[in-house]
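Notebook entry, structure prediction.
Reason for the run: the old model in the group folder had no record of what sequence produced it. Starting over properly, with the input documented here first.
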Amino acid sequence: MIDVVEILQHWHAGRPATVVAASVGVDPRTVRKYTARAAESGIVPGGPALTREEWADLVRGWFPALVDARARSLTFAEIDSHRTRIEAMLDTNTVSTMWQRLRDEHGLTVSETSVRRYIWLEFPDRARAEQVTVWRPPVEPGDEAEIDYGYLGAWFDPVAERVRRVWAFIMVLACSRHMFVRPVLSMNQQAWVEAHVAAFEFFAACPARLVPDNLKTGVVRPDLYDPKLNRAYAEMAAHYGCLVDPARASKPRDKPRVERPVSYVRDSLWAGRTWTDLAHMQSTAATWCVKVAGGRRHRSLDGAHPYTVFLAVEAPAMRALPPERFELAVWSTPKVSPDCHVKVAGALYSVPWRLIGRRVDARTTAATVEVFVDAYLVKTHRRIAKGRQTDWGDYPPEKVAFFMRTPVWCRRRAGELGVHVAVVVGELLTDGALHHLRAAQGVIGLADRHGVDRLDDACRRALEVGDPTYRTIKGILTTTLVEPVQLAAASTPAHLHGPSRLFNPDREAAS
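New structure, fully documented this time:
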């Protein structure tokens, strides 16, 4: 409306329409459109002077659509027919979702912009509340650091010979605005925790509170009151004694001090530079954080340099680093397979057979792999790059007896069972030990069924007849005539089928 008043004032002063249009910045036809209504009302250029308020009152009567969007909007009536629905949905949905549902479910044909304009006019309190930015009070030195990832760009990796996406891990100290930037090629759990450790070592201290985004690498389940942190991230926070307080989901204004510098990092650090490898990026970024970002005049600090404020005010107030460096651990939840192994970081590790089919928690460090069940440690292995780490004690004894009974074990056990058993087993394993290993195991296993004494006597008889094999010894043990006392007094070879089956010429003749 102010522009129309100005147009009419210029026209009433006697200026041509083209001059008025150039002065106000509108088309000459627009000038003629508004001045025509004034001429129809009997007002002529050079007539009695009117004040601005008088011109404004005339414009409100001539052109009501200029001051009331309802009068000029052809879609207002259509939107207003859904007023009850809109008022209810404002409590539960965003404007975009509201417009989509009205369009799909109730046949609304107007644009989303028109719906937003309607809400701005009819529900001004709710519309303006969404745009309110709460002023954040200054943070005490050493109290808070805000953390986020920002995309830097694409980079051709000469080693992998392919284009890779590069991201920047950014940590900004809320008081001094001093920042740490670390380019990364992956945003997994390991890169996330490693970047935190590198940031604390860069500052040579750590803040009392961390405000990260709700990335899965840090926050497993976002929640306003009780967020569930990733176990490796929680371990790191406990090691350094700092609180992790994630920002609310989809609320970037909860950490504005780290959101704003992303474009600055991309432009000042990344754009227009040539990189040889990831280590080159990270070393350059660390230097840039001190000399460039740390030396700039920061508006929020009244023109002071972030690095100077950090050294003078914030560094002395931050927490000292623990004497021991944090040992990075990666947690996973593998499932125990039927062969009693879990797969962790590309290798297989055995766990007790009673856990088959269950999900376990695996904690992997650079040197070890630990397996937990319900927070209790059940197995520890030395970490390997690939392959299989197996503890035969994790299997049921009856399932691994053959693998446990090696030639060395067989010789030792045979010596415990008797002299003759030791001789038989020794002869079986003399040549081709692995070829006759099953036979030696079988001979030793006969002691469980027939006893130690009978086995030793049977081995003696098999040696006497010159056939110390498993089948012969087993046959001797299974005959009814083979008793320890009889075998000790016998001087002739045993008749395996009993005396009743011996050839008797008189009996044959009688028959």
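Summary: Residues 222-226, 480-511 have pLDDT under 50 and may be disordered.
The old model has been moved to the deprecated folder.
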